[in-house]
Amino acid sequence: MAITPDSIGPSVDVALLADSVQAVRGKLFILGGGWDTLWVRNFPARHPSLAIGLRLRIPTSWHSDEVRLSVELQDADGSAIFPQPLTQQIRIPSQTDPETTDLGLVRSFTFNNLVFPREGSYSFVISVDEEPVSRLRFRVRKRSDQS
Questions:
Q1: Residue 3 pLDDT > 70, yes or no?
Q2: Which of 12, 86, 130, 143 has the fewest Cβ atoms nearer than 10 Å?
């Protein structure tokens, strides 16, 4: 099946885990970004703050004036950690210029006082209009006393 420009929906250009992320005026301001392992002293572990920074690409052929962006934290078995995913409804600015390229939208999600019940693999599933488009995988590991 051929993929035409009209058949491609929103996608994630960039997604990363960080200690802190702010999305301001089309830019991501990132502190302590790009990690994939969270080291903790013991379990259950409460982590004070972590963030996701992402850039969503909306094709010019996209026919909706808004998208629903959701983030869900899952454990290694695919079970949800939150009762509900975190969701942002994003209004897409109209593009009237025929020479316009795809639209890039930056967003950040911050999670405070997350509790990880056990050591292992976790992932943030990023969905657009309830369709998964990206997954950020990471591990939570127990730090040795020598660290």
A1: no
A2: 130
* Residue 10, C-beta contacts closer than 8 angstroms, at least 6 positions apart: 56, 57, 58, 59, 62, 67, 128, 129, 133
Give pTM, 2 decimals.
0.86
- What's the CATH code of the domain at 121? 2.60.40.2550
DSSP for 43-110 reads: SSEEEEEEEEEEEEEE-TT---SEEEEEEEEEETTS-BSSSS-EEEEEEPPP---TT---EEEEEEEE
Report which of 103, 13, 98 is spatially closest to residue 53, judged by C-alpha positions: 13
Give 101-115 pLDDT, tens digit per residue: 788 899 999 999 999
For residue 78, tell me if it sits in a domain. yes
CB 61 within 8 A of CB 92: no
Please check whether residue 132 lies inside any domain of the structure: yes
Question: How far are the Cα atoms of 49, 69, 103 from residue 114, in angstroms, in the given order?
Answer: 7, 20, 32
CA distance 60 to 56: 13
Alpha carbon separation from 22 to 26, 31, 51, 123 (Å, rounded): 10, 9, 9, 21
Residue 147 located in a structural domain: no
